[in-house]
Amino acid sequence: MAATATMATSGSARKRLLKEEDMTKVEFETSEEVDVTPTFDTMGLREDLLRGIYAYGFEKPSAIQQRAIKQIIKGRDVIAQSQSGTGKTATFSISVLQCLDIQVRETQALILAPTRELAVQIQKVSRWEVVPCSRVLLLVQL
Question: Exposure winner among 48, 84, 88, 122, fewest CB in 10 A?
Fold first, then answer.
């Protein structure tokens, strides 16, 4: 079964077919060349965030994480679409946590979720105990 992932930054899209280690064909659409970062260690993430990622059980970034995390950290507009369980929530959570200044105690990011289920998932991913900056408050309108 083929998985489809679409990543678009600003501009016209370009398609590439890539083979992953498990031989799944994944299609990527990007507006320009996007570097693939094969490991979390090579993404330039803070040490405390890396500890949290590995403590959470991640070993290797998924295809979407390999392409999107660095782009988001650079401040690029990214639209990422892929099947459930491919790491989209962790992708933007890691990116947001990397951009936070852990010395600043004021609100630095606001994440809006369309459902309570997704909001709880985001909060869970963003609350890695070894990441001191991840004080996350869940606000849900019922």
Answer: 84
pLDDT (tens place) for every residue of the chain, 142 residues total: 333 344 444 443 333 333 344 435 566 677 777 889 999 999 999 998 898 889 888 999 999 999 999 999 999 998 888 888 888 989 988 998 899 887 888 888 888 888 888 888 887 777 654 455 555 554 544 4
Going from the C-alpha of 110 to that of each of 64, 76, 87, 119, 122, the distances in angstroms are 22, 17, 20, 12, 12
Angle between helices 47-55 and 88-99 (to 10 degrees): 150
Q: Does domain 35-126 bear CATH number 3.40.1160.10? A: no
CB 48 within 8 A of CB 129: no
